Amino acid sequence: MPKDGWAALYRKLSLVNAVVASIWTIILLLRIKPFSYLLPIIADGGPGTWLILGYILYVIVGFCGFLGFSTFFSHLERAGYVVNDKLTTFGVVALFVGSTSATVLLGLGGALGGYARTVQHLPLHQIQAILEPFVDVITSFTILTVVGVLINVAVIARAERTPKGD
User: Fold this and answer.
1) pLDDT tens for the 166 residues of the chain, in order
2) CA Rg value for the chain
3) Does 1 fall in a domain?
4) Which of 22, 19, 151, 23 is CA-nearest to residue 90?
5) CB-CB neighbours of 87 under 10 Å
6) Which domain holds residue 15?
7) Distance between CA atoms of 117 and 128, rounded to whole angstroms?
8) What is the DSSP letter of 163?
């Protein structure tokens, strides 16, 4: 058993995974070669993919992500740790606004593009024209989400134990 216990090891590893997932997300969004080929490969599945991706990300980040951070902060509070409230507030707001906005826009873009493709049978260039306005906005909100995750990870990692008796 690790010196600090298994829970501490899993907590540290999950924080590492959060950072790696954030880096992976940024790599997917980079518009420089060779990374610029990733989004077209993903999007090749059609605009309806955006819709389901928005939903899945909302469930994963919106529910599981916040539940995970809730567990971390609950543990810190019970163990007598103090966190930076201002930084935590910014992290929560960035994570919530970023993740909610990005996933809703993915769903909306996917619904509009999917409708144009499957119902209206529009040509590809018209479908791309429908989706294009969403790309930069979704990217911006996704970056805000990553910033929120990284801030929360930093807050958790830098939490300080308060002396007993305070």
Assistant:
1) 667 766 677 778 788 878 888 887 888 777 888 878 776 766 666 787 887 788 788 778 777 888 889 889 989 988 999 999 999 999 999 999 999 999 889 989 988 888 888 888 899 999 999 999 999 999 999 999 999 999 999 999 999 988 765 5
2) 19
3) no
4) 151
5) 14
6) 6-161
7) 10
8) P
* Domain presence at residue 166: no
The predicted-structure confidence for 42-54, as pLDDT tens digits, reads as follows 666 678 788 778 8
**Domain count along the chain:** 1
pTM: 0.79
Q: Would you say the C-alpha torsion 28, 33, 34, 36 has a positive or negative sign?
A: positive
**DSSP notation for 96-125:** HHHHHHHHHHHHHHHHHHHHHHHTS---HH
